[in-house]
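Comment on the following before class.
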Amino acid sequence: MDPITFLTYLAILLLVGIICTLLSQKIRIPNILLLIIAGILIGNLSYRGNPLIQFPDTFLTSISVLALVLIIFDSSSRFKLREFTNLSTYALGLTGMFLLLNVLFLTFFTLKIFPSSSFFVALLFSTLMSGTAPDAVLTMFKKTKNRIFELLEIEALINTPLVVLLPFIMLDFIKSVEVEYIFSKFIEQIGPFIQQFVTGIGAGIVVGIIVFRVMKKKYSETLSPLAIITSALLTYILAENLGGNGVLAVTTMGLFFGNMYVTHKVQLREVSAFFANSLEILVFILIGLIIRVPLNFVFILKSVLLFVLYLAIRYAAISISLKKMEYKFKEKLFMTFNVQKGIAVAVVAFTLTTLYMGGIRTILHLTLLFMLYSIIISTLVIRFSNYFVKTKVK
C-alpha cells in the first residue's frame, strides 16, 4: 500500500472520530456508540468491488497490541489494595458472581442459540462479556452522590483487568492443548501453562522493581512519562519472548505502579491515560470497520434473545451478590441495564480479529452487537435515571 494512501486513510478515520466525539458531547450520548456506527458505515463502503478503506494486518496487529498494553497498565495501576473498602468487597463479590454465572449459563445459551461456536470460543465470549464500563453514568452524574454509582465504578475498576487478562490466559491454554480433548495431553500441558503464569508475573515484577526504584528519586517532565509507556511495552515483549503471558506481566507491573510510592505518580498516570484514551477513537472505529456483522434478520433476532438472557444473568448476579445491601427492585434494574462495554472489551475483540479459530467470527459479531446493545440500553436508562435511583447533589 502506498504510504500516502495509508496515511490518508488514517487521517480520515481520526477526523471522523473527532467529529463523532464532538457530536456526542453535543447530543449527550456516549461517543463509543457513534464511533462504532461510523466504523460500520465506513466498512460497508466499497470502490470497484473492494473495501474503500483497508489496512494491512501488520498495522492492525501493532495497534491492537499497543492499545492492549496501555489499557491494561492504566486500569491495573488504578487498583489500590490499601483503599479496599467495604463497598469494594461487595463490588468484588458482584464481579466474581457475574463472571461465574456468565461462564456457566451464557456459555450454555451461546452454544444452544449459535451451535456453530465451539465450547472454548463460547467460553471466551462469556468471559469477555463479564466486563463493564459505565462511563456514561460516571460522566453524567459528576455532581450527584449515590452508592450505586460508586459501586458501578469500583466494579468496572476491578473487572477491567480480569476481562482483559482471562481471555488471553484461555487463548494460551487452548494453544497449549491444541484443542485436543485427551486427558493425558491435558495433564502434559499443565506444566507449560503454569510456567506462562510464573514467567509473566516474574517479568512484570523484575521490570517494575528496576523502573520504579529509579523513578522513586528522579523525575523528568519529558522523559518519565515516556519511560512508563516504554517500560510497559518492554514488559509485554520480554514476557512473550520468554514464553510467558505478556498481559499478565503488564498487569503485574501496573499493580506495582499503583501500590508503590513513585514521585509525581498522578502526572504520570494522567499521561498514560491520555495515550490510552487517544487510541480509543481509532480502536472503536476500526472494530466497527473490521467486524462486519451479517445483516441477517435471524442472526440479529438470535443475538437480541441472547442479550436478553444475558441481562437476566446480570440481574441474578446482582440479586445474589448484593443481597445484604437490600437494594430496591428499580435500583437492581438500573445496575442490570448499566452493562455498557468499553475500551477494554473493544481492545480484546480487536485483538481477536487477527486470530483464526473455529467459530471466532460468530463470537466477534456477537461481541460487536452486544457492545451496541449495551451502550444503547444504558443510554436510555440514564435518560430516565430519576425513575430508578434517587440522587443527592454533592
